[in-house]
Amino acid sequence: MKKISYYLLQYKWNYLLAVVSMILAVSLDMLSPQLTRHIIDDVIVGGNLSKLGFLLAGIFLVGAGRCVFGYIKEFTFDKTGSSIATEMRKDLFAHIQSLSTEFFDETNTGELMARVKDDIDRIWNAFGYLGMLILEVIFHVSIILVCMYTLNWKLALLPTIAMIIAGFIAVFMEKKLGSIYEEISEENARLNTVAEENLAGVRTVKAFAREKFEIRKFLSHNNRYYELNMKQSRVFVKLYPYFSLISKLLPLLVLLIGGVFVIRDELTLGSLSAFVEYSTNIVWPMEMLGWLTNDFSSAVGSIRKIRGIYKVTPVIKDPEKPARLPKVCGDIEFSHVSFHKADKHEILKDISFHVKAGHTVGIMGATGSGKTSIIQLLQRLYDATDGTIFLDGTDIRKLSLKQLRGSISLVMQDVFLFSDTISENIRLGKRDLVDAGTIRSASDFAQASGFINRLENTYDTVIGERGVGLSGGQKQRISIARALAKKNPILVLDDSTSALDMETESAIQQELSRLSGITKIIIAHRISAVRYADEILVLENGRIKERGTHEELLGQKGLYYETYQSQYGGVPELTNPAAAEKKEV
User: Fold this and answer.
1) What is the DSSP code (8-state) at residue 501?
2) What is the pLDDT of residues 287-324, one digit of tens each?
3) For residue range 481-512, what is the model confidence (pLDDT) as tens digits?
4) CA–CA separation, 426 and 411 (whole Å)
5) What does CATH list as the number for 4-310?
6) Phi-psi region at 341: left, alpha or beta (left = phi > 0; alpha = psi -120 to 50)
7) Which of 109, 122, 476, 514 is most deeply buried (CB count within 10 A of its CB)?
8) Which of 184, 186, 144 shows the shortest CA–CA distance to 162?
9) DSSP one-letter code for 326
């Protein structure tokens, strides 16, 4: 994490302008009691009416200057605080994006939302309005005390003692509130998580009639959040009256004790009037001290939370001097690859296979057998625990992540579409390179153009969050079109036709079989998706149990054969569609 001083130095001239304006505004404010003193001592008591016009003009100019410099101060602080918050939010979001997949496996979305939004907002407040008030209170009090000591050092001891007592109360309050803010921040993250999950999965909640259960779960976190905020309020309410008591007693005591000094001729009546005005002016900083301490503690707690995220470093990084392939052909080799996550649970064990550029490999297996993990390792979302993965003969750990991942078009099992137009969703990843013709061609290939053209705005139709409003099959077809539009040398289909009807799936398989010059990795549960692959791997418990072509695997009468029997109930002679077309010609 960049130090707070880094952001402050970025806007040092803004802060200099704001601080100078604040000093001038406060200094002008401190002139008013002096002008009042001269009006009483020189004009009212001394009878020198010639000074009255100048003194009244001075009061007017002080007020006008106070307004001008006060406006510059507040606007500059607010603008600078907003700019710093924008920079911090951008840096935090970029850091989160750089983190490895393992971090997101262990961290809730709601917690990250709380850090990016709520915690940055609190820091924004600290750099803007709150920071301005803290500086103003410090300078304001310092100037007032100097003026008071100039008038009468004995009487000035009274507000000094009052400020020291208020300071001790503020420090005590900050310590009490610090731990509470930690708990509030944590509970806010949990509350965001529950809300985010329920809003994103509202259709699932309704489908299983779990509304009451989810409402109760939300209310439990909401009540906990309420209790913590009440705990904070109880600390604040318990201690704040002390600030109020000090601020109310101070002017009264100054007037009483100062009156005694006037009677003894140790202080003029005008000086006492100025002293009372100063003591009234010093009251609001004391009253603000509790509130400022409250908000400052909140900002400090937020900084701690954000630092916690910055302490996490990405496990998957670009090499210091990455190798650069002049052209990615798509030759893929897994050599004795094993993989387990931090919990030491073995996911893949001794996986070895080779896919020549332009060839197709099919991967089958039961749920949890490790199929998707192979793709995650190929993309370096995780690194293999043992073994090596090669792309065009180069260890993928020596390649830049940009070249590696930019060479792979992926159709994920869990389709994710953004709340944007269909066209923009298909362009995703290569927005400036994919033109309208490519989008339509890819949509035709994915059998998606039919339903897209029936929509009122066709490709400019805005789809809802996560593709709400589209069927599962329609979302999969858009996802396939998105992958094909990139024209990358490697195409990965991770159970990408599971939501399609047999006719549409068959049409897409026909198109895929004609697709040449692209290395294809097809993960599926259906035999129909992998039957024409150059090699089919059958995984079981993270190992390659069987391998071969469709015909060879049927001949082995193992897991693949059993899967075929369960899906088709027999073993008729099967022909590659591309070969069949050539025979007819």
Assistant:
1) -
2) 676 667 767 777 877 888 888 888 888 888 888 888 89
3) 887 777 888 888 887 766 666 777 777 777 77
4) 12
5) 1.20.1560.10
6) beta
7) 476
8) 144
9) S
pLDDT for residue 576 is more than 60: no
Contact between 504 and 532 (Cβ < 8 Å): no
- Residue type, position 250, single letter: L
Q: Which CATH superfamily is domain 408-487 in?
A: P-loop containing nucleotide triphosphate hydrolases (3.40.50.300)
Report the first-to-last Cα separation within the chain, whole angstroms. Answer: 66
Give ranges for CATH 1.20.1560.10 in the chain: 4-310
Q: How far apart are CA 405 and CA 544, in angstroms?
A: 25
- Structure token digits, residue 202: 């509202």
The CA distance from 69 to 136, in Å, is 13
Name the residue with tokens 């916690």: 308
Q: Which positions ≥6 away from 476 have C-beta within 8 Å? A: 411, 415, 496, 497, 498, 499, 500
- Amino acid 200: pLDDT: 64
Beta-bridge mates of residue 244: none
Q: How far apart are CA 135 and CA 143, in angstroms?
A: 12
Higher pLDDT pick, 175 / 95: 95
Contact 413, 474 (CB under 8 A): no
User: Measured between alpha carbons, how far is 502 from 341 in angstroms, rounded to an integer?
Assistant: 36
Confidence at residue 354, expressed as pLDDT on a 0 to 100 scale: 92
Q: Which two tokens stand for residue 396?
A: 């993928």
**What is the rounded average pLDDT for all residues in the chain?**
80
Torsion angle defined by CA atoms of residues 274, 277, 283 and 284, in that order, rounded to the nearest 10 degrees: -120
pLDDT (tens digit, 9 = 90+) per residue, 77-87? 888 888 888 88
Provide the β-strand partners of residue 115: none
Give the total residue count for the chain. Answer: 585
Show the tokens assigned to 49: 């009416």
Token pair for residue 40?
Answer: 């009483």
Alpha-carbon distances of 378 from 270, 331, 548, rounded to whole Å: 84, 12, 21
Instruction: Specify the domain boundaries for CATH 3.40.50.300 within the chain.
Output: 408-487
Task: Please give the Cα distance from 117 to 122 (Å, whole number).
Answer: 9
